[in-house]
Structure formats: C-alpha cells, structure tokens
Amino acid sequence: MEPNAIKNMVLIFCMIILTVLFFFCIYRAIRGPRYSDRLVANNVICTMSVIFICILSVYLKEAALVDIALIYTLLSCLSGVVVCHVITLHHKGRLLNQKQKEEEL
C-alpha cells in the first residue's frame, strides 16, 4: 500500500470518529440538565468542528480551509464569552429577585 493511501484512510477514519462524537455532543447540548453542561457541549462541538476542518484541509490539500478554521475558532471563543456573560447576568438577576422577595417577607 502507498503511504499516501494509508494517510488518506487514517484521515477518513478520524473524520468518521469526530462525526460520531459530534452527535454525542449535540445530544448532551440538547439534553444537558444545566446551562453549564450545555455551554461545555457547545464549546466541545466548536472545537471538534475546527479539528474536522483542519483534518479536511490536510485531506483535500487546501490551505484556505485552515484560515476558515482560525476564523471559526475566534468566533467560537467570542460566542463562549458572550454566553458566559449572559448566563452570569441572568444568575445575578435571579439572586437579586430572591433577595427582594425575602426582604418583602
């Protein structure tokens, strides 16, 4: 067997494994009992997507896909920060509501 053919088989196998794991993370993101579970699942999905794009870049020998992966990584990081900020504000608002209700009693 040719070394290039072996490399392609390994890359395809890695992409298949990532796809299966991707669906498990989607399940956890939907069924996660807490926001933190959903947030972690979302970050893992984004990370696996970047890995998949990088593997696809090697498989197709397209360097432009690496640039797309970098942009996707930056957007993923930014979305994680925004979601954490929103969850923190929601939690602080809920605690403030509880405190006001306790003071009324």
TrEMBL record:
<feature type="transmembrane region" description="Helical">
    <location>
        <begin position="6"/>
        <end position="27"/>
    </location>
</feature>
<keyword id="KW-1133">Transmembrane helix</keyword>
<keyword id="KW-0812">Transmembrane</keyword>
<dbReference type="GO" id="GO:0005886">
    <property type="term" value="C:plasma membrane"/>
</dbReference>
<dbReference type="GO" id="GO:0015385">
    <property type="term" value="F:sodium:proton antiporter activity"/>
</dbReference>
<feature type="transmembrane region" description="Helical">
    <location>
        <begin position="66"/>
        <end position="89"/>
    </location>
</feature>
<keyword id="KW-1003">Cell membrane</keyword>
<dbReference type="InterPro" id="IPR007208">
    <property type="entry name" value="MrpF/PhaF-like"/>
</dbReference>
<keyword id="KW-0813">Transport</keyword>
<feature type="transmembrane region" description="Helical">
    <location>
        <begin position="39"/>
        <end position="60"/>
    </location>
</feature>
<keyword id="KW-0472">Membrane</keyword>
<dbReference type="Pfam" id="PF04066">
    <property type="entry name" value="MrpF_PhaF"/>
</dbReference>
<protein>
    <submittedName>
        <fullName>Monovalent cation/H+ antiporter complex subunit F</fullName>
    </submittedName>
</protein>
<comment type="similarity">
    <text>Belongs to the CPA3 antiporters (TC 2.A.63) subunit F family.</text>
</comment>
